[in-house]
Design goal:
139 residues, mainly beta, 6-stranded mixed β-sheet, 11 strands, 0% helix
Length: 139
């Protein structure tokens, strides 16, 4: 439960479950990634790939924190760069910025290889600001 800080000059490398204070040019937020969650039917199987889901929660939002599907990438064990499907937990359209005033959670879904990987957030669309390392297990 370590709290990390991320700036453009010093991006943060965290593990799933860790929170990262994002410092952007025009805003800030506390971001926490949880996952990946895999379907129960995959557990104990010999499958080499699985659908996976991450929840990314933004809290303590100040100013402008941009979001769009292109700002999130996942790299899996095989080195594949994946663009996850991004949706709002609870439904509704995906806004262009994180709404302030209450925690806001996105759900990211894709199919990944079993093993290690990285979930990255690049708010400016270029270099990533925060990265969460994860491990997909089926045993």
């Amino acid at each position: 439960n370590q709290l990390l800080s991320a700036t453009a000059a010093h991006p943060a490398i965290a593990i799933q479950g860790n929170s990262v204070v994002l410092h952007l040019d025009h805003g800030s937020a506390l971001a926490t990634a949880v996952g990946p969650n895999v379907p129960d039917r995959i557990q104990g199987s010999a499958d080499l790939h699985t659908p996976a889901t991450w929840d990314l929660t933004f809290a303590n939002v100040h100013g402008t924190v941009p979001i769009s599907p292109s700002r999130f990438t996942i790299t899996d064990e095989q080195g594949m760069l994946l663009l996850p499907h991004v949706s709002v937990v609870g439904g509704g359209p995906l806004p262009k910025i994180v709404p302030a005033g209450r925690p806001f959670t996105l759900r990211l879904t894709t199919v990944v290889s079993i093993g290690d990987g990285k979930l990255r957030y690049a708010p400016a669309g270029g270099p990533w600001l925060a990265e969460w390392d994860f491990d997909v297990e089926t045993d």
